[in-house]
Amino acid sequence: MIPAKIEDVFLQLTTNFSGVIVNIVAGKFAKNTFQVHNSIYEFCPFLEGTLEALEPLEPFTLEGMVLVSYEKEYNVDIELFKSADEISILIHNRTNVYKIVAQLNQNRNDIFFIKRELAEKNEELKRLREIADKANEEKSRFLAMMSHEIRNPLNVILGYSEMISEEEINENVRKYSKLLSISGNNLKVIVNDILDLSRIEAGKLELINEPVNIKEIAKNCVENYSYQNKNEAVELFFNAEKNIPNSVLGDPIRINQILSNLLSNAIKFTQKGKIVVDVKKVSEEKDSIRIAFLISDSGRGMTNLQASKIFDEYQQNKKSDNRVFGGAGLGLSIVKHLLNAMNGKITVESKLNIGTVFITEIPFSKVVSSEIKELKVEEKSTNKTLEGKRILVADDDALNQTIVAHILKKEKVVLTQVKDGLEALNVLKTRSFDLVLLDIHMPNITGEQLVQQKNEFHKPNREIPFLSLTANTTKEDVERYKKIGFVDVISKPYTAVEFVEKILGNIF
What we know:
Blueprint: H1 4-7, E1 10-15, E2 21-27, H2 50-53, E3 60-69, E4 72-82, E5 87-93, H3 95-166, H4 171-201, E6 210-212, H5 214-228, E7 234-240, E8 248-250, H6 252-268, E9 273-284, E10 288-297, H7 304-309, H8 321-325, H9 331-341, E11 345-351, E12 355-366, E13 390-394, H10 398-410, E14 414-418, H11 421-430, E15 435-439, H12 447-451, E16 466-470, H13 475-484, E17 488-491, H14 496-504
Catalytic activity: ATP + protein L-histidine = ADP + protein N-phospho-L-histidine
Domain Response regulatory: 390-507
Pfam family, one: Response_reg
C-alpha cells in the first residue's frame, strides 16, 4: 500500500504510441486532469514528438517541465519508458522542491550581492580608517609641533618669573611676578593635558606595571599640594586603611597624575574648609585587590546636571571658570580615560554649596614574593654638588641661555656657553667637560646630529654625560634621544630645582 502523502505527489499512467491514455496505474497527483481515452498531449504538449522518438526499453527523463491543471501551474519531472506495446509515464510533482530550490538560488544570489556589498563597505571602511589614522597622525604631529613652539617661550616666561622673584623687589612687582608664574603654569598644564588627550585618542597610551607603594604615592601627592596650597582657610588631610598592602603592581606616574588632577580640582573650587584623601580597600581576591581613592572637599559643589557632564572634554561648569581658575576642562576627562585603561572607574557625589566627593576604584595585581623589593622614596642627594663642575651649554636661544646661566652660576659651575652645534663641536674637540647640555633644535648642527659625532670629540668628552634640552617631550622623542646617545632629557619648561636635580642625577 502506498502512503497517502506519497500518492498525492505522483501519477503513473500508460499510453499507446499515439499518446492516448490507456490506464491510470497509481498515484493521485492531477488525477482528475488525466482521463483514460484522453490524449496526453492535451495537458503535456511538450511530449509531442518526444514519445515517437523514444528508444524501446531505454528510460528517458524530462526535468523541470511545467504542467497546468485547473489553471494552476506545477513543476514536474517526467520519466518515460517505451515497451513493446505501450509507453509508461511517471509524473512527479516537484513544485515544492523547485520552489525551495528557487528560494535557495535567490538566497544564494542575495548572499553573493550582500558579500559583494560587504566587501565594498569593508574597503570603504578601510579607506576611511586610513584617512582617520592619517588625520590623527597629522593632529598628533601638529600638537607636538605646537607644544614645542609653546614650551620654548613658556620656559622663558617661567624662568624669568622665577629669576625676578629672587631679586629684591617691592611687593607689587613680587605679586605681578607670582601671577605671571601662575598663568605660565596654567598654560603648561593645558599643553600637557592636550598632548595626553591626543595620545589617548591615538591609542598610544602605554601603562607600565611595576611594584608601587600606593599609600606612599597618595601621601606624597597630598603633601605636595599641602605645600603648594597658599589658602590658609583650606586644610588638607590624608587617611589610609591599615589593610592596604605596601606593594602592588601599577603605573606610579599615571596613578599620581589621577590623584594630582583630582586634588588640583578640589583645591581650585574650595575656598574654605577641608580637602580629605582617603585610601580604602574595596575587595580582595587571591591575586588581586581593588582599592578606592576618595577625594572629598567642602567646596561649592555641583548640581546633578553639572555632575553628569563633568567628565566631558573641555567641560567647565561655569563660563567664568576658565577665566578665574585656568585650565581647558580636560583634567577630569583625562582621569576617566586613564581609569578606563586601568579597568577602573570613577563616580562623583556632590551637593550644591556643600561639597563634592570623587570616588575612584582601581584593580591592582598583587606582587608575588619573588618580585617584592623594598620600595623606598628616592632621597634627594644632599652631598652632591655642582660647584667647580665644567659644564658646556649649547643653545641658540639667547633668552634660554640667560636662564641657564643664572641657574648654573648660582651653583658655582664653571660654565661655557655657545650659540649653536658647530661652535659646540669645535669646543668639544679641544676642551674637557664634566657634562654637556644640548638644545635639540640648533642651526648648523642640531643637538641630535652633534651627540652622534662623539668620535670627533676630545677623548675625555666621549665618555661624559650628554643631556638634551628640549620641548619635545613625548615618550617616542625621549626614547629616540636616549637611543642616539643622550643619557637623559631636561624638558622645557623647567624650574631651577628640577634643572639642578636632573643634572645632579646624571653627572659623574
